[in-house]
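// run 5 | inverse folding | seed 20
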């Protein structure tokens, strides 16, 4: 009965998914909704699987520093792996969850230097935290409420001075004496002097214009003058004047007028006090966040002093009564029965009714965590195509602690122990990329979706530091250790020191001997001799029938006849051009468009022009070439006068050399 009773302040497990681990939350409020259900306002705590890999690296470095400072005993790799499952990260994020999703209690404590980490593994449902996670800013910070216990926080008490031994310490750095209990004044005289100090403070407030506006009545001014700040000033005055009442009286009222002493309660305005109450309601007694988000113009000491003075006012007493009345109206505890429904991930044994994930699992598979083959009950774990399963004890461990008992290959054992992520921690593409059933091509496609392109652009100072501080940077050593941090600030500081000296020293210029041009030409001729020109033959006329011969792929300007194109079965449109592949004629049946595979594409066709073809290009006019290009499927009609090659046009010749009718013999 007591185990199923949950109260405000308890750390509990919440289940939001049948396959994911439990959520660890702390109950802040228990509210009853209008339809009779109970909702719990909880504080979120995050696991390592809930934060990014960079923050996991930061948490690892913090854990190593804690082990070195607290001198923790050595643990095995499996224990270190399980300790990461016991670490949580506190946050200030609140959420409301149904109370019926509670699945049990757990214990969460702040990690202390006196704690031994291995003790957390010996206790069930026991967690610890030392860092605070901000889900919005994605940062990890040390908890401000850390208790400073340990040898380094203890005061070092010096030895007592012997009689007659002088104190050689710097007295200016030591404490200053502000009150002597063995003074010559009696208690009655001290009380009378304090009454005089209050009266002077009341009179000073009456003379001050700003104080008369804040405390318009005499009673308020007298109450403000009776605060501790006035009494402290009066006692300090007695101490400075050697407990001489006459001198102390004259100090209270100097020549310029009475001394006015104000505390933080008087310095703060009403709007600033309202902001403080609003911040206190949101952040509690976290004065750093109150100053950062609400009162940045106030100092931290001023906020702390105002808080303790504010607790003595009637405003604090009224808010305390309202909170107590509101707490009485809310639920103090709620009873949640034990959850006994079967999990959908449960694998039904052979012969029973098949469940959600029970069908299709192979026999003989072992547990992914403890590698056992015998268990009273099995549970499906990971992606469905992986056919992975966990035994009953490992399934409970997975649900409570968010990991497996032993590090597996999928959790990062093959990549090292720095990133202990199981397949439950990974997204579906990442988990499939680690699958042994996934090919390398598909694995590359899956991982390519999560990659992001980034550019690193160096500054001039960085490029200078690479050359001038090569002994500090050690680029070859840094390249072999890409994940080791480099102290860039030290390198920049050293570069700024060496840069003025390097500017004064002249650069060493190595003269380069250049060979003369004649020598370079002789070397090139000796390496690659030039080919001799072939002698030209006699001038022979062009065979006119040669252009109409079928040369296959030899000529680029040879036009195919209309009969040849029609015989090939290529359909033509009304203007003589062939129909495109996407347009069909009336007699052509409709065919489904298919995407061509690049592997099935035809080989590229290369046209090699002959001398006759090149001569024909020169013989044709520009207008005839354009007309032939616009109608590539029609045969080209070549007239005999155009077979010959025209001579080069001189500067004085007309712009249209085609007007001549004299045939020219081709060389």
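// decoded
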């Amino acid at each position: 009965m007591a185990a199923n009773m949950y109260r405000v302040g308890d750390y509990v497990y919440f289940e939001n998914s049948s396959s994911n681990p439990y959520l660890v939350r702390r109950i802040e409020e228990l509210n009853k909704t209008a339809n009779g259900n109970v909702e719990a306002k909880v504080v979120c705590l995050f696991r390592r699987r809930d934060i990014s890999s960079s923050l996991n690296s930061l948490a690892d470095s913090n854990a190593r520093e804690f082990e070195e400072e607290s001198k923790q005993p050595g643990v095995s790799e499996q224990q270190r792996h399980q300790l990461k499952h016991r670490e949580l990260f506190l946050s200030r994020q609140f959420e409301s969850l149904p109370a019926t999703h509670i699945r049990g209690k757990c214990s969460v404590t702040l990690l202390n230097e006196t704690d031994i980490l291995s003790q957390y593994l010996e206790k069930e449902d026991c967690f610890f935290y030392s860092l605070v996670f901000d889900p919005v800013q994605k940062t990890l910070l040390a908890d401000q409420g850390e208790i400073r216990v340990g040898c380094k926080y203890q005061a070092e008490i010096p030895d007592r001075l012997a009689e007659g031994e002088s104190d050689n310490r710097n007295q200016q750095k030591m404490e200053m004496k502000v009150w002597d209990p063995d003074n010559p004044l009696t208690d009655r005289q001290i009380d009378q002097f304090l009454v005089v100090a209050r009266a002077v403070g009341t009179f000073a407030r009456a003379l001050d214009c700003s104080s008369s506006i804040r405390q318009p009545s005499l009673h308020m001014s007298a109450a403000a003058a009776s605060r501790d700040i006035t009494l402290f000033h009066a006692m300090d005055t007695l101490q400075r004047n050697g407990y001489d009442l006459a001198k102390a009286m004259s100090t209270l009222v100097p020549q310029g007028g009475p001394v006015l002493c104000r505390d933080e309660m008087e310095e703060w305005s009403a709007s600033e006090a309202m902001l403080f109450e609003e911040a206190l309601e949101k952040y509690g007694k976290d004065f750093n966040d109150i100053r950062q988000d609400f009162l940045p113009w106030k100092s931290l000491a001023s906020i702390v002093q105002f808080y303790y003075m504010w607790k003595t006012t009637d405003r604090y007493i009224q808010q305390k009564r309202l909170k107590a009345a509101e707490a009485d109206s809310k639920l103090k505890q709620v009873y949640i029965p034990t959850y006994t429904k079967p999990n959908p991930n449960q694998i039904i044994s052979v012969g029973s009714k098949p469940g959600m994930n029970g069908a299709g699992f192979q026999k003989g598979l072992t547990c992914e965590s403890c590698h056992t083959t015998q268990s009273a009950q099995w549970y499906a774990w990971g992606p469905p195509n992986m056919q992975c399963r966990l035994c009953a004890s490992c399934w409970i461990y997975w649900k409570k602690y968010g990991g497996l008992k032993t590090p597996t290959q999928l959790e990062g054992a093959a990549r090292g122990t720095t990133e202990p992520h199981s397949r439950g921690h990974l997204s579906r593409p990442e988990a499939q990329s680690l699958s042994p059933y996934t090919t390398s091509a598909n694995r590359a496609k899956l991982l390519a979706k999560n990659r992001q392109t980034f550019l690193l652009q160096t500054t001039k100072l960085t490029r200078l530091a690479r050359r001038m501080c090569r002994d500090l940077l050690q680029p070859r050593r840094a390249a072999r250790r890409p994940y080791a941090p480099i102290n860039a600030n030290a390198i920049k500081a050293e570069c700024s020191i060496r840069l003025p000296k390097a500017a004064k020293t002249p650069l060493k210029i190595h003269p380069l001997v250049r060979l003369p041009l004649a020598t370079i030409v002789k070397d090139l001729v000796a390496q690659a001799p030039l080919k001799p020109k072939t002698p030209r033959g006699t001038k022979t006329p062009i065979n006119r029938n040669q252009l109409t011969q079928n040369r296959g792929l030899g000529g680029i300007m040879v036009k195919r006849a209309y009969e040849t194109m029609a015989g090939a079965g290529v359909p033509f449109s009304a203007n003589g051009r062939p129909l495109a592949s996407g347009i069909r004629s009336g007699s052509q049946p409709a065919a489904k468009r298919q995407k061509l595979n690049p592997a099935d594409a035809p080989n590229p066709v290369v046209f090699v022009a002959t001398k006759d073809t090149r001569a024909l290009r020169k013989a044709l006019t520009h207008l005839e070439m354009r007309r032939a290009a616009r109608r590539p499927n029609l045969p080209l009609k070549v007239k005999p006068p155009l077979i010959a090659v025209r001579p080069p046009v001189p500067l004085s010749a007309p712009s249209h050399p085609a007007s001549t009718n004299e045939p020219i013999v081709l060389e």
